[in-house]
Each structure stands twice: as C-alpha cells, then as structure tokens.
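Quick bug: guanylate cyclase output formatted oddly.
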Amino acid sequence: LKEKTEDLKRERQLAEDLLHQMLPKSVAQQLRRRQKVEAENYDQVTIFFSDIVGFTSIAASCTPLQVVEMLNNLYVCFDSRIESYDVYKVETIGDAYMVASGLPERNGTKHADEIAKMSLDLVAAVRQVVIPHMPTGRLQLRAGIHTGPCVAGVVGYKMPRYCLFGDTVNTASRMESTSLPQKIHISSATYEALLTDDAYEIKLRGEIEVKGKGKMKTYWLLGNKNYSVQN
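Here's what came back:
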C-alpha cells in the first residue's frame, strides 16, 4: 500500500508539473479546484515577440524531422534561459516565441527591465544553438518589445489556453515584424519604461511606418551597462 501511495504521488506530481508548463500556476490551481478563472485587466505589462530570420526558406530545405529537431534545440535553450527572469512564456507558434512580464503575477515596474535583460540574453544565445543538419549554419533572431495595458484570461474548455488580448499584443508583434536580424526593436513606451534606472544602451531608430499604427518613433535596444548575458 505504501509503494502504491508513493507511485500515485509521483504520477500526480508529474501531471501537476505538466499542467504548470501549459498554464500559469495560479490559473492551474483554480482549474483543478473547478473554479471559474476570471479574466484580468493589467495596467502595464511588457511583451516580447521573436522569430527566426528566413525560417520559411530554412524549413523548405529540411525534412520535417529536421525542422522539429531544430526548433526543439532552440526552445530548450530559450526555455532554460528565461527561468532566470521574472517572465512568463505565453506560447510558441512555429518559429515565433512570445513572452510577457507583469502577468499573471504583477511585479510593479520591473516588467520592462526583466524582458529587456531576457531579450539581450536570447539574442546572444541563438548564435550558440547548433542546427544538427546545418553544422556550419547559425540561426538569427528578430525581436520586438512593447509595454502597455492588456487583458489576460483562459480561453477554451477542451484544451484551455492562457491568452493575452489588446493593442499592446498587436504592437509588440509589429515591433518584431519590423525589426532586423539580431536586433531588439523597442517602442517609445518600452524606451520610457527603461529610462528609469539609466542602465541600458539604447539607440534611436527614428520614425517608421507600422502597419495599422501609422508612424511610430522606435528604438534599438543594444545592451545593459550593468548586466552581461549568461554564457
């Protein structure tokens, strides 16, 4: 009986660990208690998007297995690194990687700083990811960040997902799509949020035309004066 109880505990822990990888811990606990998860409004969060430069053409020259292996190597690398920061990985769609800070647990004014440090780390880390079928090739990341309000909640019953909604999500995605290889493109809102401690090297990009937004003044995030990325 004792052995069976221990086995049951292990299985339960495995199930809980898997659930916590798919949903925020606080949300998973509410679902397990069969409670309704209320959507929440967040006044300020910072959202990061990235994708792989030229992924479509890279994928076209690979077998399906090679594509999956390449993305798995990349995401294992990214997932292990983001654990060092106060951030939540929202989702991956193909080669796109979405991370937020300031939700589901609010962290005051730290969200922009946490995402900025994380993004510098990931842009450096992508160069070290080995592509098994392209031993001499290296992946390049295109990244974008925006800060603003959003709504977050659980959507779906069969396969519930923790989703983010609002213009902040759209703008962060636009920052990524208008970025350049191995560059971190940030909005004016994120720039202002990072000015508070004067720790970042930031360069003005200027005014650019952003689809659905018109002209926007944006910046390049180059580095942090007091923080070096992990090896």
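Actually, after a second look the formatting is fine. The mean pLDDT is 85. Closing.
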